């Protein structure tokens, strides 16, 4: 039977909502996954999910896990109190979820939150020994689509099975620090000409009163204020979704529908990454690359950039990113004018 395109889309949407709904209720009524404990000691290895939720984990993990559990509970509560409408997910929404079938892991990648290094680590984990050192993998190679599998590539039953039994983790960052980091990386570095052409020229055309011809053509000198105007302009999201570098984690990873087992933070990247690798049982063979620069930001970059933004735009921007603040327990920045 041939179905019109609309019909097929509708069917896909229904199937999508079905698996997500099942998961959603499971996460509310029964936060402990239904796993069997292996009674033969040391015989078969536990999955990361079993290691996380079973009571007898190694001692050094306990402290870390308590704070991870706190974040998980806070996320769940925030979801309950701040999301009313039930959204519907389709496999297409799972493009940011990277799958490691070998270690039973699912990682939702968020750009500007150490995602290159996580992709490198996952390439090592899934490579069957072809790679051993994450830092030996060039950054651009880590981002090649097809080097890693995403959950959206699987069938609905396969997606369900993985969502139920794999350890799902995500790494987040203070939303405005992440945003400023994206701005600096994409608009103030001369080599990022693709972003200048694609977004910079448009931003300057729309938000600079009397642009020079060269700026209009190159789009390479967008100010942070112009970038903010572009973000809060209702036309921007009407035309297309935000680029993933400034899209909200809430929209990239659907943390109120997908029950993340570990919420790692950029601010505590090293211990949190270590906890994930321990749960995956690879802490002895693999070190998360935390090479200097990325983790050594002073956490105050956003304040310097927001000084020059008017209270009107600050407020609009905060509303735009509010869910990411609430869901991941980031407090309203002190530098935001309270007028
Ligand atoms: C949430 O943030 C507050 C303030 O930073 C902190 O004291 C608290 O421990 C955090 N809660 C969780 C569950 O992480």
UniProtKB/TrEMBL annotation:
Gene label: LOC115010513
Gene Ontology molecular function: any one: sulfotransferase activity
Membrane topology designation: Single-pass type II membrane protein
Protein location: Golgi apparatus membrane
GO terms of biological process kind: carbohydrate biosynthetic process; proteoglycan biosynthetic process
Keyword annotations: Carbohydrate metabolism, Glycoprotein, Golgi apparatus, Membrane, Signal, Signal-anchor, Transferase, Transmembrane, Transmembrane helix
Pfam families in the record: Sulfotransfer_2
The organism of origin for this protein: Cottoperca gobio (Frogmouth)
EC main group: transferase
Signal sequence coordinates: 1-31
This protein's name: Carbohydrate sulfotransferase
Superkingdom, natural source: Eukaryota
Cellular component terms per the entry's GO annotation: Golgi membrane
Family: Belongs to the sulfotransferase 2 family.
Entry's transmembrane regions: none
EC code: 2.8.2.-
């Amino acid at each position: 039977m041939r179905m019109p395109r609309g019909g097929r889309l509708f069917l896909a949407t229904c199937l999508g909502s079905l698996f997500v709904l099942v998961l959603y209720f499971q996460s509310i009524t029964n936060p402990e996954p239904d796993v069997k404990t292996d009674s033969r000691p040391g015989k078969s290895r536990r999955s990361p999910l079993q290691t996380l939720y079973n009571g007898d984990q190694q001692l050094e993990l306990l402290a870390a896990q308590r704070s991870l559990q706190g974040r998980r509970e806070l996320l769940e509560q925030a979801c309950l109190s701040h999301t009313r409408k039930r959204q519907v997910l389709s496999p297409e929404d799972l493009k940011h979820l990277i799958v490691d079938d070998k270690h039973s892991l699912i990682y939702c990648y968020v750009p500007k939150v150490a995602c290159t290094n996580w992709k490198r680590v996952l390439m090592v984990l899934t490579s069957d020994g072809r790679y051993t050192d994450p830092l030996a993998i060039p950054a651009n190679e880590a981002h090649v689509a097809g080097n890693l599998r995403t959950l959206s590539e699987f069938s609905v039953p396969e997606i369900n099975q993985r969502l139920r039994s794999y350890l799902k983790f995500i790494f987040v960052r203070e939303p405005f620090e992440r945003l400023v980091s994206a701005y600096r990386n994409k608009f103030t570095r001369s080599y990022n000409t693709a972003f200048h052409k694609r977004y910079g020229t448009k931003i300057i055309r729309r938000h600079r009163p009397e642009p020079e011809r060269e700026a209009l053509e190159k789009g390479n000198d967008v100010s942070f204020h112009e970038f903010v105007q572009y973000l809060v302009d209702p036309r921007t999201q009407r035309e297309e979704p935000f680029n993933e570098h400034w899209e909200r984690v809430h929209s990239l990873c659907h943390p109120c529908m997908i029950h993340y087992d570990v919420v790692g933070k950029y601010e505590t990247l090293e211990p949190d990454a270590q906890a994930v690798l321990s749960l995956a049982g690879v802490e002895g063979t693999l070190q998360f690359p935390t090479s200097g620069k990325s983790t050594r930001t002073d956490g105050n970059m956003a304040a310097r950039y927001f000084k020059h933004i008017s209270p009107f735009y600050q407020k609009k921007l905060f509303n735009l990113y509010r869910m990411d603040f609430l869901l991941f327990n980031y407090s309203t920045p002190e530098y935001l004018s309270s007028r």
